[in-house]
Amino acid sequence: MSTRPMPKEPADRIELLQGTLDMLILRTLLFGPAHGHQIAKHIQRTTDDLLQVEHGSLYPALHRLERKGWIAAKWEPAAKDLKREFKYYRLVAAGKKQLIAEESKWKQMTGAIARIMWPSEEG
Amino acid sequence: MPWWNAKERERDLERELHSDLESEAAEQRAKGLSDTEARNAAQRAFGNTALLKEEVREMWGWTSFERLVQDLRYAVRLLLKSPVFTAVAVLSLALGIGANSAIFTLIDAVTLRRLPVAEPEQLVQIDKFYDNEPGGFSYPLYQQLRDRNQVFRGVLTASKTPLRLADEPEGEGARGQYVSGNFFQVLGVRAWLGRTIVPEDDRLSQGGNPVAVIGYGLWQRRFGGDPAVVGKTLPVEGRPFTVVGVLPPQFFGLQVGETLDFAIPIASETQIRPHSWLGEYDDNWLSVAARLQPGVSSARARADLNVIFHQILQAHAGSVQDPHERDLALSQRLDVTPAANGLSAPRDAFSRPLLILMAAVALVLLIACANLANLLLDRASARRREMAVRLAIGAARGRLVRQLLTESLLLSSLGGLVGLLLAWWGSAFLVTLMATGTTPLRLELHLDLRVLAFTAMVSILTTVLFGVAPTFRSTRVDVGPALKAGNRTLGRDASHAWFGKVLVMAQVALSLVLLVGAGLFIGTLWNLRTMDAGFERNGILLASVEPGTAGYKGPTLSNFYQALLQRVRQVPGVRACSVSLLTPIAGGGFDMPAKVDGYTPAPHEDNTVYINGVSPGYFATFGTPLLAGRDFDWHDRPESSPAALINETMARYYFHDASPLGRWVALGDRKPVRIVGVVKDARYMSLREPVHRTVYLDLFQMAEMDAGLRFEVRAADHPLQLLAAVQAAVRAMGGHVPVKNETTFDRQIDESLIQERLVAALCGFFGSLALLLAAIGTYGVLAYAVSRRTNEIGIRMALGAGRRSVLWMVLRETVGLVLAGIVIGLPLTLAATRLTGKLLFGLTPADPLTMTLAILAMLSTAAAASYLPARRASRVDPMVALRYE
After folding, report:
1. How far B45 CA lies from chain A's nearest CA (Å)?
2. Inter-chain contact A64–B59, Cβ cutoff 8 Å?
3. pLDDT value at position A18?
4. A20-58 burial, b for 16+ CB within 10 Å, e for fewer?
5. Could you report the predicted ipTM of this complex, rounded to two decimals?
6. If interface means Cβ-Cβ distance under 8 Å, which residues of chain A face chain B?
7. CB B346 within 8 Å of CB B749
């Protein structure tokens, strides 16, 4: 599970920390149900293509979250094209709780890292 | 979505990927790409979808079963691809597993099964030993032991010789026993239907009730399981007995290997035998068992019982005249042994040979495992390259090991399955081998699952150890060199080659043990069959003629037999005929202390001689030559002076070089008889015994004529063709005299050799099996060595070595291996064959001829096995071999 910033040089790759992709997916689904491709596009667009989600990581992650009971899936026709069906994932209550937990953990961690990296700014 | 629905999930994932791929492609098209370009771009974005699917599958963790199926399918394909390897491996396993289970099933049935009675662990068997030989009990002795002991809750008895039903054929017909009234109560066996025999049926004073209980088998067979069987009549030995009950199906009687078809109270014996044995202290016809008082050990019971027994013996010793006889009588003792598994005559007769067979099949299992190990080792080395390739393209090591394990397990399961079939069929076949002719052997065979499991475990362990471990080890090596190296030079590394050689040596050593054992038993059978036993074996018809049951008595009996002999002698094709008390090698006999004219015995010298009563013509019938004097003739009348013939051994023992003719011998306390002739030594009860001093008396001069004699006819042609004529002659005498137990003399002898034949046949079979397995092992190792050395051989030939020298070089390797195996095997063999002990006849456990033959067989088999690889080596084309590298 790794995402890489697409247009950048290989040296600039950002290795996502374990579990980060899960949090990003959960956060994306907070806006409403989406299928796998939409989720990937959303993350890409929002980060200005800095983070490109590999399909090889995305689908296992989606199925893992489904198995853990944080998201649920349902086949539904697309909003634009009613003839085609997509597998829409949606956040369930347990997933929201998990998102909150992960978010606070993430905040603590970035805060801790920031204090080490930029002590002066912390003042 | 339910987690177990793997197929649906698979489809679901497929659909999800497809729909998302489509929408990606649609976006690319919207950017202005062509249809194909858009599709390719989408495909690129998604990457390796197969891997992706695999990862999702992995994530769900639902693939272990699917993977197993996949592995199994692959394993089956692989095994089918090398059918010879598979067949040899499966067969090795099957023979190892099957032979062991079959033999152990038999041992289990004969010796280990528990009696289906209440608290079998309290049951003990009581044996009487006379001159260290086990013998039966008389009824008065049984009564005294039963009434005077303090250690048993109950003592029961049953007759040893079977009772018959008048309307069922001899041999395969129903077999019954006299039982004491307390028999079923002491055993704790309840009736399945009706009631069992109870003590009230067994009142001696009233002659016993004519009632019978029947076994479940007889009930089904004779009465069709009729629930209204109680009250029906059973013609026991021609007398009507009323059926009072049916025994439960799992109760087969006390005697292991026999089925109790019916039982009648022992007191009713007076209604069947003209002269009852119930009051006779010297008729030992019963077996005795007892149930211990709680808290009494069999050791204590033995001590207590022997005290009583000696009091009884002392009371009777006064009536014995001969001092040697008296010593023997007083030295009798009783043994009390746990009988939870039943009284077993077959146990005594067969347990030693069965143990030897067990050892033989254990050896076969070992050899089979060695073979398997060798095969798998070769295969494992051959697959190192395959493993390296798989590792190189990204297979996980654990996954490969799992795959290999699956293959091994499949192989051993197949072997186990075939082994199960072999065991099933083999143990039934063994029972039919053991029970031929007149002694049916009925054993409840249950496949012993513990042994099956054990042998299967051993084989599976072998498979895993030698199939998986080397391959797994090889997967640890660097992939690079393994890939770079050619298939050939990679091969089996030095330690593997060395190990294979050790396995072959072990196989040779173990096979040698089996071969020598087989040779010894086959030699024993050969010796027994061809020895000069003092009679001719072929062309003699035997039958029991029993005028006694038709009412002939006293002098009329004698007249009957004489008239019958005269009649049969007239039948065309009859060379000679006679009647006698005993026929040779029938397993029974009479002996008596003898006093001999002019011979003074040393104190306590054994002067027992064996006795047979015969009619004139007996020696002519059996082809036993008369060496001096004359045979009995019809001038020897009851009123004339009684005559006797003796055998050579007796003549030599008592008269040395002097002529015994005209001297006398006195048997027991009877009147002396005059010796009129000497005949050649002939074996008496069994072929294995030494020749006994034997006295033949004239049957027609004996004080009391026996009511049932053996009738023997020497035929010019096939003896059984005369049976009808003999039966007709007996019928013509009138009075419905039964003719029973008809057989031929050579068949009677053959039946006495059942055990020898069984052991010889099976050891022979296992020996050849061992040889075959060893040959396969040798072939495998050598073929491998040759293919590994193709290069070297090529160089040698290029440098001028001839084909002959190459052939010899390879053969030398085999000879070296086999000789080393033999050197290891010889002391093993000598140690093992000592176990055969008394089972051999006419040769020693270290018989040099057998040893030599076994070694030669081993060497020639190995040479044959190595011929193919050696020839292949000698045909190596040096150019091809050198260019290959």
Report:
1. 7
2. yes
3. 56
4. bbbbbbbbbbeeebbbbbbbbbbbbeeeeebbebbbbbb
5. 0.78
6. 35-37, 41, 54-56, 59-60, 63-64, 67, 73, 75, 78, 84-87
7. no
